[in-house]
Amino acid sequence: MQKVILGMSGGVDSSVSAALLKEQGYEVEGVSFILWQAQDKFSGCCSLSSAQSAGRTAGRLGIRHDALDVREEFSRQVIEPFAEAYARGMTPNPCILCNRHIKFPFLLKQAESRGADFIATGHYARVERVPGARETVVLKKGLDERKDQSYVLYLLREEELRRLVLPLGTKRKQEVREIAQAMGLEAAHWPESQEICFIEDNDYCSFLEKHNPSLNSPGPIIDGSGREVGRHRGIHRYTVGQRKGLGIPSLTPLYVTGIDIGKKAVYVGAREDAACRVIEVNQLHWFQKPDLPVFRAAVKVRSMMKEMPATIELNGDTVTIVFDERVWAPAPGQSAVFYEEDVVLGGGIVMPLLPGFSR
Known about the structure:
The mean pLDDT is 91. The protein starts with a strand and ends in a 9-residue tail after the last strand. The chain is of the alpha/beta class. The radius of gyration is 22 Å and the shape is globular. The relative contact order is 0.12. The chain has three domains: 3-192, 3-Layer(aba) Sandwich (Rossmann fold), CATH 3.40.50.620; 216-269, SH3 type barrels, CATH 2.30.30.280; 274-350, Elongation Factor Tu (Ef-tu), domain 3 (Beta Barrel), CATH 2.40.30. The chain has helices at residues 12-23, 48-61, 71-87, 94-114, 158-162, 173-183, 204-211; strands at residues 3-7, 27-34, 64-69, 118-120, 125-130, 136-141, 164-165, 219-222, 228-232, 255-260, 265-269, 275-286, 294-300, 308-315, 318-328, 335-340, 343-350. The strands form four sheets. The chain has a six-stranded antiparallel β-barrel. A five-stranded parallel beta sheet has the order 3-2-1-4-7, with helices on both faces. It has a four-stranded mixed beta sheet with strand order 9-8-11-10, with no helix packed on it.
């Protein structure tokens, strides 16, 4: 019997994954990661309370379960880079950082120490293994397009992808909930978690200011004509595409169109000014690097947005992406992930637009 180490958050997806893997004949062992210390009023994935819930589910399914305290590593590898990025006018995706530096490396370490064949999570994506002289492993979208999570997995290392099993890749969310309900699992009726796990009440500003009080540094808010139309209390409060919370009287809606860290300036304009056709991307990671210096692919710039067709030009350690149509608010610090149909080719980090750079 092959053994698999499953990351269990306590939620419905990982709970059903445990049940499906056991049904498929694996010896399943669950591991929960305690990433942060929640307040009594605040609980969610990756907290002590969620690990306890995962333990109860594992007990009901008759599988081993352990909880690992990785708060120190999570703070160093995820929270600190997250806060530092906001201080530079960027909008990072902490789930991608966590997958890269915490969840999958630690799952792989547990698999190696326990003699397990595979690792698994409850992500909605697929891993396809193509036999050959050297087996090829491909990351693909989940079949449920509304829940597809391949975007947040684009930074996986080859050794992690080769050992990965994703039992929900061919499932739809409603089907997963129905399985959980039929089995009487604790998480069957839990609501979807849409917020960042370590930020209470979705209050980014308070969290960032506690982490770095120097962020409360005011500066100008400038419109498209170069006129100062207001003052802000810190660039960490803004991201490209933002409309709410600007505090500027205007007859027409204004959106954040850019942030200049050097000038501590926030730029605003009409909605169309927050869209662009051309972006540059660095910190590249490839599953399948194209042979040609210029190639076509679909590119997704936010986890919940649809990917858009584009031409991509390789420039050494960066790429230039020219979309066929203007794309809404690609924010510096977010990831741009490249797809060929439903296959993930790779991705990288959206760079700030330079002055005069064509939008």
